[in-house]
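Honest question from a wet-lab person: if I give you the sequences of every part of a complex, can you actually get the arrangement of the whole thing, not just the pieces? Trying it with mine:
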Amino acid sequence: MKRTISYIFFLALLVLQGCVGGVYFEKIVNGYFLSAIDVKTDMLLGYQDGDFGVGVVGSTVFAVGYNDEYIIVKQHPRKFPNPPDKSITNYFIVPIKDKVHASPDENKIGPLTKEEFVIKRKELGISDSLTFTKVFSELE
Amino acid sequence: MNFDQATAGSLTMDWAFGTGLENRTFNNDKTADAFRDARVVNQARDYWYKEVNAGRKGVNDGVTNFLGQKAWTGGNFGFKGFFSAGLDPMEQFVGSFTPEISSDSKNLTFKIRNTTSFKSLMYGIGPDWSRSTLRLGGNMGQTYIFTEPINFNRIK
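Yes, you can. This is the full assembly:
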């Protein structure tokens, strides 16, 4: 009887708690992180602004690369609740040092096409050694 | 059983058995109202006023993908959320979520997106799947929308 009650309580707790945590979280550099709350396709690039985390590049982020000055990001745009549109790849450049906007969620250059991204990174003098080192193949 | 308990119970059953609509929107209704005072919504609202007061945002700017205070495994609900949501069944059902704020310079519109999935229920362990793969426990999307007037007394 006691065991049955414990099982019922545990199951009720599971149902009640919904999504307590996220499904993915990884700190990358200088307060920036990758996070997915409910499903992997929620993957976004966020920034820890004091106590709060804010999204910088929305879902679905599937590749990033970074050094001390820049984060480069590849994203398939996703309009919730639809899956990401894999026919489109957006590129973003997030400056870590020379910010382009005072508000951290707006501090990004993009969305850019691949061609625009190549031109912009040359313009900014981003080293060729900065490549997309973190890739989520299941989201690619 | 009150309205929120019934709604949360029905959503839980629909998710578990793959019944009802795969995606639902609750727009300025009683269900969406349950989130007006949710912990992460309050944090998002405070953040918006703070950014406007600091001059980093204008009154017609929004906040996208607000993640709030990080809790266990990167979500924003965690045990703090569990206790602050108390017996609110809708907040308990949704758990971690990312609110978005848009502004027309008179009103703030809060949009909360949530996917109920097996993976999120199991704290990130295990798979998630769409209903087209398997209806039982398949991903179910919800959008909760509510609007409130900007409190200009909070803007310096």
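Two things worth pointing out. The longest helix of chain A spans residues 2-17. The interface with chain B takes residues 14-25, 33, 35-40, 42, 44, 46, 48-49, 51-55, 58-59, 80-81, 83, 102-103, 105 of chain A (CB under 8 Å).
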